[in-house]
Amino acid sequence: MRKIYMAIPIIVLMILLLGCKSNPSTYQIVFSEYEETSTIIKEDKKDPIRLAISSVLSPTDTIVYYRKIVNYIGEKLNRPTILIQRRSYNEVSNLMMNGGADIALLPTGAYITYGANGGFEGIATQERFGSPYYYGYIIAKSESSFSSIDDLEGKDIAFYDPSSYSGYLFIEEELEDLGKDIESFFGRHIYTYSHEGSINAVLNNIVDAAAVNSLVFKTMKNENPKQFETLKIIGESMPLGTGPVVISSNLAEEDKEIIKESFLTMHEQESMKQVIQGLYIDRFIPFDSEYYEVLYELDK
After folding, report:
1. What stretches of 86-242 adopt beta strand conformation (E)?
2. Residue (of 29, 34, 4, 30) closest to 16 by Cα position
3. What integer is the mean pLDDT of 133-142?
4. DSSP letter assigned to residue 298
5. Helix, strand, or coil here: 238?
6. pLDDT, greater one: 103 or 39
7. Residues 114, 116, 117, 118, CA torsion sign
8. Residue 29 pLDDT > 50
9. What is the pLDDT, as a whole number, of residue 242?
10. Of 165, 58, 52, whose CA–CA distance to 108 is shortest?
11. What pLDDT score does 18 carry?
């Protein structure tokens, strides 16, 4: 059955959530999807190199930086380029597994879930705020009485994506350790497909708490420290590696090496250094599978 997706304005979302308080259920917010073809035109008609992303930061604010990254890779390969943007982590993973993309900035949770059988290989990891690691945070309003996940039973929570480690999976694991599950534990849970959206859902009292990426939380806090005084962190996950850069295993070995070298030296190029800094990335460092080892087995 074909699914029809609609963007939901925040005012309508608030009405839906607050107006249906007595009926616990799950809401999904699905945004538009699109592909952009680069302005690079090649006379030799080579196949385009396709980069897929699902940004943890605001897609509207960061799309220009990702476009410059894919153009840069295209110049190195002497090939036209296509930037593919998706909101859902599963969609980006499926693109890589089904041959719909050649390169992806893959979310950590998606790599842990699909990496062994995905038909792609890691070539680099993002270093942000001086570290290749990040955390999942549980956040709530500072004025609330919540101090741990135990206090959220029957409360409303915002998640990023069902395949997100920081925005869903670590909460699922914590509840399993308590002998509980997300469906029965929380009063209502929503998927925002945006860490920024999850944070704003708490700030605007749409939900009681949210599971968010520590890197996005820190970024937004640096930009608006006063507003974040109204929030507190009541839970934290184990550390895991930031989202890896993966490439299709079907690419030619020469192309793989060029792409890998391009990412690992990107911070040394003056024009590209400003681009990755716009994404709050210090640099790309060599991929290491140890960054993505977890103490539990995620569902396959």
Report:
1. 103-105, 120-127, 133-134, 136-141, 156-159, 188-191, 209-213, 231-236, 240-241
2. 29
3. 96
4. P
5. coil
6. 103
7. positive
8. no
9. 92
10. 165
11. 40
The string of DSSP codes covering 107-135 is: -HHHHHHHGGGSSEEEEEEEEBTTBSEE-
Closest CA to 238 of 194, 185, 177: 177
Whether 277 shows a pLDDT value over 70: the answer reads yes
Beta strands in the chain (DSSP E): 26-28, 34-37, 49-53, 81-85, 103-105, 120-127, 133-134, 136-141, 156-159, 188-191, 209-213, 231-236, 240-241, 244-248, 283-286
Strand order in the sheet with 188-191: 26-28, 188-191, 156-159, 209-213, 136-141, 231-236
What is the 3-state composition of the chain as percent helix, strand, coil, each rounded to the nearest 5?
Answer: 40, 25, 35
Q: Tell me the C-alpha distance between 120 and 110, whole Å.
A: 12
User: Which of the given ranges, 38-47, 93-102, 179-188, has the highest pLDDT on average?
Assistant: 179-188
Range of weakest confidence among 53-62, 98-107, 265-274? 53-62
